[in-house]
Amino acid sequence: MDNPQFVWVDGKLVAWNDATIHITTLGTAGVSLVYEGIRAYWNADARKLFVLQLDEHLARFEQSIRLTRMRQTIPTAEIRAGILALVRANQCAQDTYIRPFAFVESTYYSGISNDQARLVINSMPNPLPVSGVRVVHACVSSWSRVTDNVMPPRVKASSNYLNSRYAMEEAKRNGYDIALLLNPSGKVAEAPGACLMIVRDGKIITPSVTSGILESITRETIIQLCREVLQIQVIERDVDRTELYIAQEAFLCGTGTEVTPIASVDRFTLGDGKIGALTQRIATLFQNLARGIDPRYPEWRTAV
Ligand SMILES: *Cc1c(COP(=O)(O)O)cnc(C)c1O
Fold first, then answer.
1. Is the per-residue pLDDT at 180 higher than 80?
2. Taking the alpha carbons of 239, 241, 246, 252 in that order, is the dihedral positive or negative?
3. CB under 6 Å to ligand 1: residues?
4. Do residue 236 and residue 105 come from a single domain?
5. Phi, psi at residue 55, to the nearest 5°?
6. For 48-57, 96-105, 112-121, 254-263, which range has the lowest pLDDT when averaged over its residues?
7. Final residue belonging to a domain, choices 91, 125, 159
8. Range of the domain at 56
9. What's the CA gap between 145 and 211, in Å, rounded?
10. How far does the centroid of ligand 1 lie from the alpha carbon of residue 195, in Å?
11. Mean of pLDDT values over 11-16
12. Ligand 1: which of 156, 257, 300 to mutate, most ligand atoms within 8 Å of CB?
């Protein structure tokens, strides 16, 4: 696949090959890096690209920069304009993944030697797997989720992903598709890059935002859709491990994952091991809204 033409770096569109940093900054930059993963959905009939929940992602990006105490010198409004300019410059006429990231550049690891955030945005074509067709087999990880006074999961930081990597590597090695992590209190937190919802007796149950999860925008969206559109009760509370085993349905949700049904947990089959009826309704609704096929919630879609 060809590279996109441009990358946005500290306020400017830069040709792909010129958007480099020095190799010696790599280690420290990776340690202190926060980011966002944003999807833009192509509506083929309207020939329009919609960025999904751009402002929600930008608000969380700003929050991640703030919580890690980096100095943000470019205002969020300019980052927003940068995202739209980049997607236009790269002539994205298909589903696109957009990744703004902020990092501290330093050759030595002091962590705080230069706290000014460097800002980069890249976009890449991202043809969607059709949401909801693939089911995944999950295990409960032997690794615990990072916790708020160690490595706050609320911050979308690349360092948190080492915890995810341990869990995913173990899951794959043992023949599963995905890991589910418990927090240090033994309650269900989330998957390595997605939040989790289960269905019990027609109600949706999901770990609360103090369970050691990233405050997922997709999770919020689905909660809102369940309450306002589908008239389904959603309960945010602690979830026990064994509730995963007796759930009628379970699914992952996140920008990357969208809505992905879970067929089994620790080899306990959920329902008939296929996508559940409620999960299917949520997945379809989400897709149609994201793409603007369903015109409701126009405030979630920014046309490029
Ligand atoms: C990005 C991410 C999610 C999903 O968040 P969205 O805002 O829905 O994209 C969930 N968990 C983790 C750990 C993540 O990094």
1. yes
2. positive
3. 37, 156, 190, 193-195, 214, 216-219, 254-255
4. no
5. -70, -35
6. 112-121
7. 125
8. 6-125
9. 9
10. 7
11. 97
12. 156
Where among 78, 93, 125 does a domain terminate? 125
Please tell me the distance from the alpha carbon of residue 232 to that of residue 114, in angstroms, as a whole number: 49
| Ligand 1 closest atom vs CA 256 | 9
Contact 230, 259 (CB under 8 A): no
Percentage of the chain with pLDDT > 70?
95
Protein residue with its CA nearest to atom 13 in ligand 1: 193
Q: How far apart are CA 71 and CA 143, in angstroms?
A: 33
The number of folded domains in the chain is: 2
Q: How many whole angstroms from 239 Cα to the centroid of ligand 1? A: 18
User: Does residue 181 share a domain with residue 262?
Assistant: yes
> Cβ distance 260 to 130 under 8 Å?
no
Atom of ligand 1 nearest to the CA of 221: 8
**Residue 241, in any domain of the structure:** yes
Distance CA 14, CA 231 (A): 47
- Ligand 1 pocket mutation, candidates 38, 158, 214, criterion most atoms within 8 A of CB: 214
Is residue 219 included in any domain, yes or no?
A: yes
Q: Give pTM, 2 decimals.
A: 0.95
Per-residue pLDDT band for 112 (boundaries 50, 70, 90) equals low
Say yes or no to pLDDT of 247 above 80.
Answer: yes
Q: Are 55 and 92 members of one domain?
A: yes
Return the residue whose CA atom lies nearest to atom 4 of ligand 1.
254
Mean pLDDT of the chain: 93
